[in-house]
Design a protein that fits this description.
The protein has a single domain (22-160), classed as Skp domain (Protein Binding, DinI Protein, Chain A), CATH 3.30.910.20. The termini are far apart. The chain has 5 helices and 2 strands. 78% of the residues lie in helices and 5% in strands. The protein has helices at residues 2-21, 29-35, 37-74, 80-133, 153-160; strands at 24-27, 138-141. By secondary structure, it is mainly alpha-helical. The chain has a two-stranded parallel ribbon with strand order 1-2.
């Protein structure tokens, strides 16, 4: 038993001493992508770029809702041919709307990835610069808990916004 204790002590003491010298930092990348000036500019650029397409989709949604409402209210009074025509029109409108929404999402995601790639690269460089300058051994992201003492997010944001 005594030998086991000495062996465990011999194994853990150097690791504990090494851990005491380890300097660890944390970066909240979600906050960097939300709050940095470059990220805010990229988001505004995307909103401006896709605003007209979004308005067109909203207009089509309203048309589909109005037509659906009309069919619900007036459907029984319409002739069979008119009702069928309106139902077909609604089905075509819905199909076109789904296609437009899918294309919109795909295009927006692609452009968002393009715009935020530069933000991500600049953030990575800023993190490396801070780590080297302040002699961090490890900087991590996406942790369950990190004290404010090891959070370097504000320093990264300042570096990005210079």
């Amino acid at each position: 038993m005594k030998r086991l204790f000495i062996l465990l002590l011999a194994i853990t003491l150097p690791a504990a001493a090494q851990a005491a010298d380890l300097k660890i930092g944390f970066v909240n990348t979600e906050r960097v992508f939300r709050d940095s000036q470059q990220a805010v500019k990229a988001q505004k650029k995307l909103e401006k770029e896709f605003q007209s397409r979004d308005q067109e989709i909203q207009k089509t949604i309203k048309q589909a809702r109005d037509l659906q409402s009309y069919l619900e209210k007036e459907g029984l009074t319409l002739s069979e041919a008119d009702r069928t025509k309106k139902q077909r029109e609604l089905a075509n409108l819905s199909r076109d709307l789904q296609h437009a929404q899918r294309e919109f999402r795909e295009d927006l995601n692609q452009r968002r990835n393009e715009e935020f790639a530069s933000v991500q690269e600049r953030a990575r460089k800023a993190i490396i610069e801070i780590a080297e300058k302040e002699k961090f051994d490890l900087i991590v992201e996406n942790v369950v808990y990190a004290s404010a003492r090891v959070d370097v997010t504000d320093r990264v944001l300042k570096s990005l916004d210079r």
